[in-house]
Amino acid sequence: MPTPRAAVIHDLSGFGRCSLTEVIPILSVMGVQCCPLPTAFLSTHTGGFTGFTFLDMTEELPKVAEHWKSLNLRFDAIYSGFLGSERQIGIVADFIRTFREPDTLVVVDPVMGDDGKPYQTYTPAMCAGMAHLAELADVITPNLTEAAFLLNRDYGDLLDGGRALHDEGALRRLAEELSLGGRRSVALTGAALSPGQTGAMCFDARTGRAEAVQTEFVAHPLHGTGDVFASVLTGALLRGDSLRDAAALAVEFIHDCAVRTVEQDLSLREGVDFEPLLGRLIGR
Ligand code: PXL
Fold this sequence. Notes:
By secondary structure, the protein is an alpha/beta fold. The chain has helices at 19-29, 60-70, 87-99, 124-134, 144-150, 158-161, 168-178, 225-238, 243-263, and strands at 5-15, 33-44, 54-56, 77-80, 105-108, 113-114, 117-118, 139-140, 185-189, 197-204, 209-216. The protein has a single domain (5-262), classed as UDP-N-acetylmuramoyl-L-alanine:D-glutamate ligase, CATH 3.40.1190.20. The chain starts with a strand and ends in a 21-residue tail after the last helix. The protein has a 9-stranded mixed sheet, with helices on both faces. It has a two-stranded antiparallel sheet with strand order 6-7. 3-hydroxy-5-(hydroxymethyl)-2-methylisonicotinaldehyde (PXL) is lined by residues 11, 13, 18-19, 42, 45-47, 82, 111, 119, 224, 226-227. 3-hydroxy-5-(hydroxymethyl)-2-methylisonicotinaldehyde binds at residues 11, 13, 18-19, 42, 45-47, 82, 111, 119, 224, 226-227.
């Protein structure tokens, strides 16, 4: 089988594991060729750090797309994550329309925020644009905050104002609602069936069914775990796993990385200590 190839549109943050510093090693170890389009270059990620540098790569993206088109490059997956400007939303949508083929897997991780708040560089216009971009996806991987933004709902009102936070039926209905009538698959992250657990509620557009995968809750906030989740999920989907199995692998991997991060008393803003565990993703 030829090595699957993924175009990954995400930022490169020099310190604080997230985005491309997680996506590239994870996809590589899972046997996927990763072709990065960096949306911005930052000195650190924006969660838990201040004073970070931010080089916006908006101007570069269409030039890269044009060159890749001239080379007739083809992608088995297109995966987008953290965007650097409002204008990038249209550029990424054009990229998807240009390179998508009938079998291309389009994963949009609608990276916008956490804990009810947008990330420091995200404007309301970017969040509104992200909802349009996500309409092009086969699979989306929002956390609960991003789910509220996608549905244009108040985070505080989501899941019955928090009263239904651990209600399996309410989480299932939320994932179904995010599927836009079953047109796209959803892996809703940070979905916990009880306070001691965490995981994902998956709505699979292929089967029309929603199913939860759960693990033991370890710590919060653990930076970069959403990017690990979307990366493992994309790698596993590309090798033919079902959405549920792909999500279960991602949830289990993040749990094990979180345990070793906490056991070593590492700074949570530096991201999960995933590198020593990468071997677990080989051939699974
Ligand atoms: O993990 C999401 C993410 C990605 N990229 C950058 C971020 C964040 C979250 O804070 O700041 C630059």
